[in-house]
Structures
1.
Amino acid sequence: MSEKTTILVIEDDKYISHFIDISLTKENYNVLVAQTADEGMFLFSSHRPDIVLLDLGLPDRDGTELLRELRAFSDVPVLIVSARGQEREKIAALDLGANDYITKPFHMGELMARIRVAQRSFQKNGAESGSTKFTCDWLTVDYEKRKVFVSENEIHLTPTEYKTLLLLIANKGKVLTHNYIIRQIWGYEGGDSKSVRVFMANLRRKLEKDTTHPRFILTEVGVGYRFSDE
Ligand code: CA
C-alpha cells in the first residue's frame, strides 16, 4: 500500500482534470481520474481513495446521484466542484453529506487548502476518537461532564445548543447546510433557515469574543455553517 494520500477526481472536463492531476501529483498526491460517474464508482470501489473531488455535471449521471450511492457505504471526504449557477445542486450535494465545495473557476491554491482540510478530517477520525475533551483557543468542551468553558469560565448552553456545538465540532472543517442542521438537531426536513440563523446567533454570542468576526462558527453565505478548522 502506498503511503501517499490518494485522490479520485471525477470530472468530465479534460482540461480541468488534467490541470488538477498535474498540480496534485506535483504536491505528492496519488491521483486517479474518472470522466464519468460510472467510471468514478468503479475506481472508488477498486482503489478506495482517501478523498474524492466530484464534479456535479457528469455526462452519464448527476454528481449528486453518485454521492447518494457513495454515502450509502462510505464516509470518504467529498469535495464538490460546481459551476456557477449550480447553487441548488451544490446545496443538495452538501445536504447529502458532501464535505465542502469549490466553485469553478478556482485557483489551485484554494483547492489545495480545501484538500488539506479534508485530509485532516480523515486523519483525525482515527486519532481523536475516544478523547474526552475538546479545546480550541479559549473554548473547552468537556464531553464527560457535558460542560462548556469560555476562557476557563463555565457557560450555560441549552441542551439543543450543546447538541449543536457537538455536531459542529464533530464535523470540524466541513460545511453543514441549514437543512442538514435542522435534520440532525430538530429531526425534521425542510425547516426554516431563518430560525437556524437566529439560533446560531445566540450560540455565537455565548462562545465568540467578537460575533462579527467569529473564531469558531463560520457562516457559509446562503448555504450554512462550518466550524473553523484552524
Ligand atoms: Ca462537468
2.
Amino acid sequence: MLDRLEELYRQAADDLARITSSEALREWELGTIGRKGEITLMLRQTGQLPPEERAAFGKRANEIKNLLTQAHLEREELIREQELARSMEEGQVDVTLPGRVTPVGRLHPATRTLREIYDIWAEMGFQVYRSRDVETDEMNFELLNIPPHHPARDMWDTFYTTTPGVILRTHTSPGQVHAMREYGAGGTKPIRVILPGMCYRYEQITARSEVQFNQVEGLAIGPRIRMTDLKGTLTEFARRMFGADRQVRFRASHFPFTEPSAEVDVTCILCQGQGCGVCKHSGWLEIGGCGMVHPAVLRNGGYDPAVWSGFAFGIGPERITMLKHGIEDIRYFWSNDLRFLNQF
Ligand code: PHE
C-alpha cells in the first residue's frame, strides 16, 4: 500500500512538472488531490490498514498530499505568468506605444473676439443682454423709427419668410427696445447693456459681406447722458480693444433710430494711420455706427424723452477680428475650414 502511494506520488509529481495549460492543471488536480483524486482516496483508506501500519501510512499520505498541494500552487502561478506573456505576444499589445492624441476643440475666432468685447464692456459696467434672432417687422424696423415702405429700409434687406411680419433680425438694434422694456421698469431706471448676436441680411456674399454675421449693440440710458458720454465711452473701448495710442474719429452719418448719428473709425491697425491697402490709404478703419437714441425710440421703450436720454452703438466683431488678424475674406468665418480655424 505504501509502495503504491509512493508510486502514485512520483507519477503525479512528474505529470505536474509537464503541465503547461491551466485546463490540464485543473484535470490533474481533480485526478490527484481533488475530492475524488487518487491521493485523497488512498488517504481515506488508511482506516482499513492493519493498526500497526496505519500511523506511518497516514503520516506519509498527508505529507504527500501537502507536498503536491504546494507544488500545484507553484505550478499554477507559473502557468498564469506564461499564459499572460503568451497572450501579450499574440495580441500584439505594445504597452509602451504612446496613446493616440484626441483632438481638442478650440474657440472660434469670432467667439474669442466676442468674449474680449464682453470683458471690456463688463469692466465699464455694461451687462450682456441676449435678444432673439427671429424678430417681427415691428421690432426690427417700426419701433426703431423706420416705418413701412420708408426708403431707409433699403439699408437692411431681409430674408423672405412665409410668416407675415416675421423676419430674421438684420441688426441687433431691436434688442434696444426689448432691453428698455424689460429693464427700464416703465421708463424709471437707467440701463447699461450690450446686445451681442447673429444678424441676417439678404445680400450678395463677397469677401467683405456675408448673409450672416455678429453684431454687438450697446445701449446706455440715463437722466443726463450726452453725446460726449458716447464719444468718451467708445474712445475708451477702442483704446482697450486696439491699444492705448489708438485714435478714434466720429463721422456724421444717418440712422433712423439715432439723432445725431455717427460712424466710428479708428486709426488703421496695420499701418498705424500711415495709409495702406487695408484702410484704402485713408489711415482709418470703420468699426461701427452710433448715435444718441432717437426720442421716438425712447418713447417706444417706455421712457419720457424730456427726462431721459441715451446713446447706442453697433459694432461688427467679425470686422474687428479681420482687422486684428489681417484676414482678407469674411467668408472664412462660417465655411468651417479647419485650415483657417486651426490658426487661432
Ligand atoms: N444697427 C445699425 C446697423 O446695423 C448700427 C447702429 C446701432 C447704429 C446703434 C447706431 C446705433 O447698421
